[in-house]
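Problem 12. The chain below contains 436 residues. Write out its predicted structure in token notation.
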Amino acid sequence: MTARSLSLGLLLFGMLWIAIALMQDFDLEGGAKAIMLIGLGLATAGATLTVEGHRLPLRRERILVGGLALVLAVFAALTPSRLTMAEAVAAVGLAAAPLMLRAAGVRNLAGLGRLPAILTAVCVALALNRLRMALAFLHAPDMEDIGRTTIAAIHAVFAGQNPYAAPIDLHPEYPDFPGYKYLPMMMAAYAPLAAALGETGLRLMNLALDAGVSAAVFLSARRIGGQVAGLLALAAWLMLPVLPRDIYKHGVTDLAPALPLVIALMLAETRLGRAGLLIGLSVAAKLFPGLLMALCGLRRRHIGFYFLGGIAGILPAVAFYLWGPADFTRNVFLFILSRPIDITSWMHGLPSIVPTLAKLTYFLFLLSVLVYLVLRTPGLVRRCGLIVLCVVGALLTGPDAHNNYMIWWVPFFCILLGALVSAIIAAEQRLTGEHA
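Solution.
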């Protein structure tokens, strides 16, 4: 591996780290978060095209990477968190280190020919650190309402009550929607441990789901770019410090709908019925991002199996709907439609015409994705890029952009990032071989 490819890879990983940390820091700053989401969309498009072999001219590539780095640097300078500022400086310094070594006369870095073994060791260390963080938060007192209401809904079902009719999510902001806000597969995912162990059980189930997402991210990226791509993607997923705090400390439950979607991404190439089933199960846990993946997983061939699998997956939600149609509709669907735009959205406080135009633009984008999938049959890489772009659009045009929604797109972006850095390394190795 050359110093240039290592430096660029470290820079890209550092940029992802800083972007996630900044989204946490600017949790209530809709405008700042929107700019970073737009940058994420540009990075996704660039990464997708590069992995597919449609690289930008070198000058434009440098402008794109430099522009994204500049945006992150500006926000890192503005962040209220000194830790994030220190992380940004450390990331830049780490990325610059290989170039400094090259300037000192070191052209090829010794030892990095054993990259798979080195990356395996890095992933083991990161996994142990993730486990350490999970255990540290196992009995944390500040679980958010998404976890607490899921536990309450599980107990309600075990007591023979309809969780969508029971008063388990009472808030003065929305008194007309006292029932459970998520779908039944969310309860099913956490019931085995949360029913008996409460908040500790929910966090332990998140640990199992986290392990599942890690394996799915590795396997998806490996399918695209081989062993190195898989290990790089896994390292990207495991290195992020913010997500474990949300998953384990705050007890957010978005891993439950995310895991079947990452698996479905792999199966959408060859096992459409199973992919549809997994997407249906995800939607039966939480409407988004499953509905977006349902669009991005479409294929022209064998579409009947895809829809049959999806219908089978959402049957648990149908059963709970039939238990109490009015309560289910009110708490699951009408609640979403009635939510006002909060301060985490860039549209907060703007005239009503702005959200209307934003939603219209997003609808046209989704329609163009549908037309594209009807006319073409993209591969795994492009589908991965499409799901990230669809989620970014949903966050930009939705009423809020809360931190737990990052789990909707981060696994797919890590797959792209691992494949991208692996492709850069492979291209550098080919160039080095040609010049040897």
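Discussion. The two ends are 14 Å apart (CA to CA). Students who got a different answer should revisit the alignment rule from Section 12.3.
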